[in-house]
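I am still getting used to backbone structure tokens and would like to learn alongside you. Would you supply a protein for us yourself, any chain you care to pick? Start from the sequence, derive the backbone structure tokens from it, and show both lines together. Go ahead whenever you are ready, and we will take it from there.
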Amino acid sequence: MDKINRLITYIKRLNSREDGRSLYLEYKGDIDTVTPQEAFEIFHGLLQDGLKENEILVFLDKIINVFFESLSNYRYQRPKNDNFLMDLMLENEEIKKKIEGIKVVIREPVPSIRRQKLLPLVEELKEFYPHYTKKENILFPYLEKRMEKFEGLTIMWALHDEVKREIEYAIELIKDPASEDHAVNVAIAEMFFGVLGLVRKEELILFPSASEVLEEHEWYDMHKQSYEYEFPYIQKTWDPELIKESMAVDGSTGTFRTETGELTMDQLALVFNSLPVDMTFVDENNKVRFFTRPKDRIFPRSPAIIGRDVKNCHPPDSVHIVEEIVDSFRRGERDTATFWINIKGKKVLIQYFALRDDSGSYKGVIEVSQDITEISQLQGERRLLQWD
């Protein structure tokens, strides 16, 4: 732990603009031997000291560069069941190829033709987003449950969001005829730096650490859960047994009984999953306990999040809103919170409802999300059956 504390002190002093060369020589022994897991401990320590994710992002790449030689020389053994890990690695190799293809087009001398060719290639990078989502909803929860230091993964989640913004901004500038070519080039360069920098952080820190701390059955479970997501840019051989297993419902025990009727567990699961809404239940201890699996999910969920603290299920930029809602419910000040957003061409209604027992004690919150695009456009009446 002394080594971790020394390196945290080194980073703070470096961020305070002390002489980098002198600091490097002072801490060289620790810098030259830092490991991937120690890197997580360092960044977790910075969060514990009160730094926010966006503050750490400002100097993150500088620190990774300082640690690069030690991290790049580090050797680790991949898990025997490395299917999930290999999928992530193969996706990374493919996005590197996409970036190289964009670099070729940038050399096009005619600006109008260059933009015309660039637009579809940069837009194609948005297809890589499921790679980030699989990490956030499958890999991160397993690591968080394993060790406290992996709460530092919120920094990588914030980096996901930053890279997405860089891609969206580059697309916006390419489409805008009033934007200057220089501005487009700068935006694309920053996008390259963000995308490839994130790949490097996965390869140097995330993948080695995960390989060392997670067990074989966890890698199997993650691989199974990954079939609910897309596999950007890679040809995936689908395993029908894994898909079937990942979607299975255990209805073998018990009956749900109330004064309004009763359902078998199979029937209860069918009812929940047939409702045209996403529902997630978080208990009074802020732990995710249940979510539904409707046919068309709005927001991705994986079994890996069960037992996860709700604050770790949202991007760092918005987690304070969720915490404010839960705290107001817990204090009895509010019972509902409602939002609506536009996402992927849909209007989505998001509602939070406080759950209380007969005595009024707070027992958790249920989050309900619904695509209301068609509902919001309804006019007049339809009293007769009409199949769409």
Remarks:
- The first strand starts at residue 255 and ends at 258.
- The CA atoms of residues 10 and 16 lie 10 Å apart.
- The chain is about 55% helix and 10% strand.
- The chain has three domains: 2-72, 83-228, 250-377.
